[in-house]
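Exercise 7.
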Amino acid sequence: VTALLFCLSCGGKTSDREHGAPPATGGVLRMATAADADALIPPIVGTLQGKLVVDQLFDHLAEPVAPLQTVGDAGFRPQLATGWTWAPDSLSVAVAINPAARWHDGTPVTARDVALSFTLFTDPVVASPHASNFAGIDSVVIRDSLTAVVWWARRHPEQFFQVAYNLAILPAHLLAGADRAALGSTPFASAPVGSGRFRFERWNRGSDLVLRADSTNYRGRPAVDRVVWLVAPDPTAAGARLRAGEGDVLDQVRGELYRQLRADSAFQLVDYGSLQYATLLVNHDRPLFAARALRGALTQALDRAAMVANALDSLGSGALGPVPRAEPTADAAMRQLVYDTAAAARALDSLGWRRNAPGGGRRRNGQPQANGIHTPASSAPRQRQALLQ
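Solution. The predicted structure, written as tokens, is:
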């Protein structure tokens, strides 16, 4: 779970919404953020901040509706697509493009754009970090100007999600001849042209990024005139900017700031499901960790609930497996190894890892066991030593 923070003094007219009146339009939404976008071309975007921006600039064929459902196509509503038709063997789907859809320069969106987008995401020269999202797709071909056909080598449950939402559609008339080895340095990267409900206005790197409403968009005008991302150097500074009245929204609130703001009536904290999760990956090739019983003992020796609460307060929980809890496929009934230091100690003893003195590390055949744990650059030190206790 992640917390979203709103400045209540900047909120909309609740009374209008309660009485069924059309929502007011206009104004500026200011987003305080702890980091700048890395890029504004979807295939090369690698950060959350960049993703938030490009999702407003570039439409997809369809988008999943809440709750997130990635299996099949029933949980999707159209964006650029008006509909889709599956082949009897489910190895291809023909997607119809909305004839009203336009790029922000007025050019119609066509099936050529869909095919070019797939090429950019999967071309090794582009080296997109998202290329693996399209594994198993053979090709995207153009049936006619408003119909693109996606072909798979085999069937799988997430076929539609794989292409409908992972594939942000890009303008072929502006990018077909671009240098694919340096997309981030092309003129398009400095002034992107999308089909979404917001248009690019300006980007002062490290300072602010501004999008403005596309008032004639085929999906309708957005509710605000502009969205501004106010870039701060770190989460603490971003929170300070919002508390000083410079911003309206802070997209992620954690740690001490979360605890402080729970008692501040000037702000509203909203919890929302997150697809983020963290893991400690164990190298099974190391002889020590090849034993499943040892890995289980180490899991039981860790108070994961306390660790999560220490880092995330009430905004996280122990993982059920390699699937975020926001996913409908997360199995809450999955058998878990519970925190039990006595059981962990018995298991380590049975494996020959014995403690020779109270509070000391464990040894087997007289040899102590220590292993390095590599952590992200944001952690210090980057490599820690762990002893079996």
